Amino acid sequence: MIGDPPSFKFRLVGTQITQWAARDYTGATLNEAEYGPQWRRVHDIYVDVLRVRAPIHSEYDAPWSGRDFLSYERIVAPLSRDGLAVDMLFGALDMLR
Question: Which has fewest Cβ within 10 Å: 6, 9, 35, 83?
Answer without folding.
Answer: 83
